[in-house]
Amino acid sequence: MSRPSPAAPPKRHPTAGFRVFEGQATIVMPDGSYIHVLNEIGSRVWELLDGEKDESQIVNIVCEEFETTREVAERDVREFLATLEANRMLG
Amino acid sequence: MNAYQAIIARNWKSATPYSALFELTYICNHACSFCYNCPTGEKELNTRQVFEALGKIADFGVLFLTFSGGEPLCRKDFFEIAKEAQRLHFAIRIYTNAFLIDEAMAERLKNEVHPFELEISLHGARPETHEALTRVPGSFNRLVSAVQALRKRDMKVMLKTPITRLNMDEVREIKALAAELNADLHFDPVITPKDDGDQEPLQLGADEEFMKRWWSEEFVDVREEKVPLRRNDADISAVCGTGRSGFALDPYGNIYPCVQWRRKVANVMEISSLKEIWRGSSVLKEVRRVAEEIPKTTLKNSSVGDFTAFCAGVAWLQTGDPTKMYAQAELVARYRKKTYLELQARAAAGEFIEGLGQTFEKCGE
Q1: Cα–Cα–Cα angle for A45, A46, A51, rounded to 5 degrees
Q2: Is the predicted ipTM greater than 0.90, yes or no?
Q3: Is A21 on the interface with B (CB under 8 A)?
Q4: Least crowded by CB within 10 Å, which of A25, B220, B281, B332?
């Protein structure tokens, strides 16, 4: 599965069940029994994947909230989105 | 311990619930002779009220939501409700008898509800056995067709089989049927009383001779628990997750500590949030205290306590005392322990026995 178009803001898969417990997003996808648990930054990015914010806006928020350089945040967010995509968690 | 297990352990410790079971209706298209439901005749929640309840459950942080009944698919507004649950980002599970699931319904469930699992009650490997319990002609073939329709769409199906006097001679065939249908299977050797305490369903329980055989090597190819497992009360001291890891709601909106222990906590329509009652409820405080006491008293004082899957709700229904050992739990534990000790002796003699010494998951874990 691939994202609708390269320009479209990334969005959580609409069928994902999830909650954030003590800062850690716990995600259940309907097509498998595996439960994904994200770390603090991943959980924050997951919350931001509302289909309205583009990748650059997400990077800005990560830079502000986690006091990291833009270069590092860009790399981390890109890698994280690629992982979500590979696990069919974007929609 | 992986990240998910660590979250579960933390939530247990702090009594932060992550699952809820919602009985959407007591209407059912089957007439199972051992059904535990006890409809009161009150008016069930309407669509708007169910939405309100779902909102409160979501606001409280619950992740896993199980729709149960009665038969939840009998509700005309089931898909509306399920879509609302999905909008609220629940991970949805459905308990169903599958009677209404044809190809079209399976397609709708797949595309509109996206449950991560459907649990379907299977009472026998043959129509006459299954239908002796459901008391609905044709229900066996409808179930088989439903499972095929769901599996064809890669939907996860768990078949649940309470072992009864009627099907105890078919367990191997039931296992083969589940394999043929490419579905998971869970046998439950314990039959529970009705919610009002009526003990009649217990008459259907498998007899002691079967239970002895069930835990012996004869059925090692059928049991999911190949080697009898022991309890583990070291990490989490409560006997189960009642009033701790989750809670249950009936079709009238009444909230209970779990599906089995029906001590009313509140009505979801009469509270502004679940947070309002979760810490302060005297019922929940008492239930949690009892659940913590049982491993230290009832199970510690029993010769089979280490092997007992104890349900305080069943104990309460059967004996009037949630801490009192009840016959079924003791019977299962006795044969679980017997086989365990035999295997332990073989291991001591040098045989490698995989899984020996592992522990079982607690109810609600």
Answers
A1: 95
A2: no
A3: yes
A4: B220
